[in-house]
Protein: Phosphoenolpyruvate transferase
Organism: Streptomyces liangshanensis
Amino acid sequence: MRIVVLAGGIGGARFLRGLKQAAPDADVTVIGNTGDDIHLFGLKVCPDLDTVMYTLGGGINEEQGWGRTDESFQVKGELAAYGVGPEWFGLGDRDFATHIVRTQMLGAGYPLSAVTEALCARWQPGVRLLPMSDDRVETHVAVEVDGERKAVHFQEYWVKMRASVDALAVVPVGADQAKPAPGVLEAIGAADVILFPPSNPVVSIGTILAVPGIREAIADAGVPVVGLSPIVGDAPVRGMADKVLAAIGVESTATAVAEHYGSGLLDGWLVDTVDAAAVAGIEGAGIRARAIPLMMTDVDATAAMAREALALAEEVRA
Amino acid sequence: MRIVVLAGGIGGARFLRGLKQAAPDADVTVIGNTGDDIHLFGLKVCPDLDTVMYTLGGGINEEQGWGRTDESFQVKGELAAYGVGPEWFGLGDRDFATHIVRTQMLGAGYPLSAVTEALCARWQPGVRLLPMSDDRVETHVAVEVDGERKAVHFQEYWVKMRASVDALAVVPVGADQAKPAPGVLEAIGAADVILFPPSNPVVSIGTILAVPGIREAIADAGVPVVGLSPIVGDAPVRGMADKVLAAIGVESTATAVAEHYGSGLLDGWLVDTVDAAAVAGIEGAGIRARAIPLMMTDVDATAAMAREALALAEEVRA
């Protein structure tokens, strides 16, 4: 079975680990969000791709969900001693090496997809990890600070400001000019099932879908497209998805997110048991729905979610 | 008193520490060799400038004479895990931060001289440290390996091959097109004394002198130019200077090195007491010479050497 998964960072990576356990023999292609990529200290950092790679490759810091395990922070301390920032983005020494290798390869002319493949040769994530695009896409968030409206990089909004002010707009700058990376449309076209993990619907999956051609390819693939709600009981399971949902005028409910994707794209939608009452309304909108436990407390619980997603996909197909 | 010092790496840096003790109120400008700069992992590394900066700024690894004290090697280990080399150049985590800052500033368009000034704002070396040039000069060494003649980067010859084969030629590639960095000629023109520490006469001081305009400015400055022999008893005090001296047809003796610089450039020359017999010959070649202990065993011994150099300069002037 060929499965295509659109993934952001932590939520996507953890779901993939469950999926690998639920369907060990499946051929999984992951299309990763690169809209939150950022240049720091002259180095190209791809937080979502790295989180997937480190999580599936056994190098992730389990507790925080991003960055490397057994990490140290000598380089960061020295950069601060030079007065070079930003200090709010916590890159560890081991993590720096990844960005150094990536930046060197990009500088030598390799596209991000080739670089990602080279990095994965070490990590052996057990999936094919593709960036959504080799072109630069950078998610910016419009905010108002001290009465002045300005646009900040998504990481500045998310990590530095901790989404403490309202997001007035979310713009994937460059997306309209970006092309899907080599292999992306082919993987979608060859898929048996397409899954949306409980990743952020705006700045993760929404950004991937903003690359011209990807949304259309998914809608036209003629295979079940099943998602898992990142909203449980009217609040994001983790992160601050409500902030960016509000920016695009979508309520933070499992129903509203499903309707935001829409029945033209989404065939099936899993909501948490606490949202069981929403199932009928979602099915009324033309999207088959089920209520199951959606907390990724451990790999077994996550594998159960993945099995339910695959079961719902088969139900849709039949 | 305004002193200009031409410096390579370890020998130059240690001499400068002694000079600072011997002449604490002097205004010292250091013209640093950049011919052994190298790009590693996409980062610009300037070994000689950093050795001077770390040594005078209190951050040097005293035992090995280069690199940072209290160093760790997480980044290097990770790069090796990615299969990315070279592994023979030992960059530590703290040191990496310096190269990251430098590379980012160069990428932003700052010349190396401005970058060096910015780095020194942290280290406060107590001297004005100038790269010999903002232009790229790269010392290559011609060698014969397995019957095949090839040119390798100086660092590859020095660090990887440990100068284990003969150097057939030493070429400062790009030197003929390089311009002295801003401030270099001005500092030479305003100097009261110019000193050559016991640095490598070929790949350190020789490279600096190969930048068009610098040798001429020193010869024309009309102030005493005094050097200290890096050769003691027919062998280099440290390093493998004999290998590169042979490549340019100069014997590894204090006398031969003095004659290589020549009386047109050099006014005074300090040799070690074991080479006292050479003094007469050197003076016969038109260069005033003295025999004193030339081992930089500690800062006090080095300060004594610096005082002797300054005394010889005054003797020359009188």
Chain A has one domain: 2-133+176-317. The domain at 2-133+176-317 of chain A is CATH 3.40.50.10680 (Rossmann fold). The longest helix of chain A spans residues 299-317.
